[in-house]
TrEMBL record:
All copies of domain ABC transmembrane type-1, residue ranges: 15-203
Family: Belongs to the binding-protein-dependent transport system permease family. HisMQ subfamily.
GO BP of this protein: amino acid transport
Source taxon at top rank: Bacteria
Transmembrane segments: 21-41, 53-73, 79-100, 148-170, 182-206
GO cellular component, as recorded: ATP-binding cassette (ABC) transporter complex
GO molecular function list: transmembrane transporter activity
Protein name, entry field: Amino acid ABC transporter permease
Membrane topology: Multi-pass membrane protein
Primary localization class, coarse: membrane
Gene3D superfamilies: MetI-like (1.10.3720.10)
Keywords on record: Amino-acid transport, Cell membrane, Membrane, Transmembrane, Transmembrane helix, Transport
Record's subcellular location: Cell membrane
Length: 214
């Protein structure tokens, strides 16, 4: 345990970066997913095509490749951010494809009668989606969104491939000095498990309060 306590500062910095990366990426992914799922169910064909192309593109290319492309490719196009911001952007855009599909599943659980009733009240497509369909869809997919957020947390470790010092990178750096791989990486694994349990606990709490049983 001494090796963990002696390097507490390095681990704490890595844990904090992982939490920040997860939180900001979750917010970004959910915001992008709401736009993409709107495109996916839009009556306008070009928007549906764009939404489908986005999902297929990001789901069929590994996240690590996207992170490396964003970090090393975008500057060549004149687009450059700090490394942390770039990692948030890459993880958000990648995760948004999965969040959007989960939301689309939720939309499919809303009865067509709800949409017809909204139209009968004079609401347009955007208003029906915003005020009637999406709120119900979100409440129907709390658990899948929670599972995807745990996956997002695990995926943040891939940012180490671009040099971001998050938890796994911090553990590796400590191990290069202390040469105690079992203890060090076991400690990092326990922290990841605890963070995942927090997300699962919040998901269950929200599910009990919000979920719609059909």
């Amino acid at each position: 345990m001494d090796v963990l306590l002696d390097n507490f500062g390095t681990f704490a910095e890595g844990v904090l970066t992982t939490i920040e990366l997860t939180t900001l990426s979750f917010a970004g992914a959910l915001a992008i997913a709401l736009v993409i799922v709107t495109f996916r169910v839009s009556p306008v064909r070009p928007l549906r095509f764009f939404g489908t192309a986005y999902v297929e593109l990001f789901q069929n290319v590994p996240l690590l490749l996207w992170i490396l492309f964003f970090v090393f490719g975008l500057p060549k196009l004149g687009i450059q951010f700090e490394l942390f911001t770039t990692a948030v952007l890459a993880v958000s855009m990648y995760s948004a494809a999965y969040y959007a599909e989960a939301l689309r599943t939720g939309i499919n659980t809303v009865s067509t009668g709800q949409a017809e009733a909204a139209r009968a009240l004079g609401l347009g497509f955007g208003q029906s989606l915003r005020w009637v369909i999406l709120p119900q869809a979100l409440r129907s997919v709390v658990q899948p969104l929670g599972n995807l957020t745990v996956m997002l947390l695990m995926n943040t470790a891939l940012a180490a491939g671009a040099g971001l010092v998050e938890l796994s990178t911090a553990a590796n750096r400590v191990n290069l000095v202390e040469a105690e791989p079992i203890l060090i990486f076991s400690g990092a694994a326990v922290v990841y498990a605890l963070l995942a349990l927090v997300i699962t606990g919040v998901t269950r709490l929200l599910e009990r309060r919000l979920v719609i049983h059909r």
